[in-house]
Amino acid sequence: MHFDIELPQEFQEELKKSVIQTLSDSLGSLNNDSKFGDWMDKGTACQYIGVSRSTFDKIIKKYNVPYTLLGGSYFFSKVELNKFMLDHSK
């Protein structure tokens, strides 16, 4: 059986934000003991999402992945990477 439910766009966006935050919080707590900290340099971020450095560079440019630039080095938030991956999942 299949149901199609149409929800107002505003409700869809709020629901999406809520689900992303909940998943991000859950993933963060699961990964606390992993080798990936809350902030990662570019190489570690590539490992975290499972892509090569050149692919990650293309993703950063194409999708405007948020980063912090300190002393010429790029740092990526685990929370933001989790949100990005969820936003771009199918």
Please describe the topology of this protein:
Blueprint (H helix, E strand, L loop, with lengths): L8 H22 L8 E3 H8 L3 H11 L4 E3 L2 E5 H10 L3
CATH topology of the domain at 36-90: Multidrug-efflux Transporter Regulator, Chain: A, Domain 2
The radius of gyration computed from the alpha-carbon positions, rounded to a whole number of angstroms, is 16 Å
The CATH architecture term of the domain at 36-90 is Orthogonal Bundle
Structural classification = alpha+beta
What can be said about the biggest beta sheet? Answer: 3 strands, antiparallel
What can you tell me about this protein's structure?
It is a single chain. This protein starts with 8 loop residues before the first helix and ends with a helix. It has helices at residues 9-30, 42-49, 53-63, 78-87, and strands at 39-41, 68-70, 73-77. Strand 2 and strand 3 form a beta hairpin. It has four helices and three strands; from the N terminus they run αβααββα. It is of the alpha+beta class and 90 residues long. The protein has a domain at 36-90: Multidrug-efflux Transporter Regulator, Chain: A, Domain 2. The mean pLDDT is 86. 10% of the residues are buried. Helices cover 57% and strands 12% of the residues. The chain has a three-stranded antiparallel sheet.
Question: How would you describe this structure in keywords?
Answer:
about 90 residues, alpha+beta, Multidrug-efflux Transporter Regulator, Chain: A, Domain 2, three-stranded antiparallel beta sheet, about 55% helix
